[in-house]
Amino acid sequence: MKELFAQIIEKMGEDLARPGLVDTPDRAAKAYEFLTSGYNSTIEDVVNDALFPSDCNDMVIVRDIELFSMCEHHMLPFIGKAHVGYIPKGKVLGLSKVARIIDMYARRLQIQEQLTHQVAETILNVTGAAGVAVIIEAKHLCMMMRGVEKQGSSMKTSAMLGCFRNSPATRAEFLSLIES
Description:
- The chain is an alpha+beta fold.
- It has two domains: 2-35, no CATH class; 48-179, GTP Cyclohydrolase I, domain 2 (2-Layer Sandwich).
- The protein is built from eight helices and seven strands, in the order αααββββαβαβαβαα.
- The chain has a five-stranded mixed sheet with strand order 5-2-3-6-7, with helices on both faces.
- A hairpin with a 5-residue loop joins β2 (60-71) and β3.
- The protein is elongated.
């Protein structure tokens, strides 16, 4: 990647010998390796047996989970937060694992709609929950810095699975709790 970044910088008309750019190809390659590190993770590695027996069958919510990802269309960041809720059926997921699952998928070239569904489906599959709800709200630099250049815009996506899709009362409870 380092050599490819050097080529891109040169194609822009820049001088790679300029002091500020001498190490930029290496730094950019390392940055992109980190920003796309989700490709090197599996759900088994992320969850790491942090699934615990529990009699809890009440809604579990983790909100305001910060995230960043890279738009697969322009390779520019989108930055925001996720809110996740699930209703356990005999097992609960370690708290940090919810955030780690989000990071695993977010650190890939991605669209927000897909990210939202990947997180919801994964948590449902891992926990066997009665239902999972995920809402992601993010600002997309591909829309803010280029194209229509709307800096105040944001996008909100949701995935409602199981009882969150089938029960308006469950969905309404989740939505009211993430707003409080």
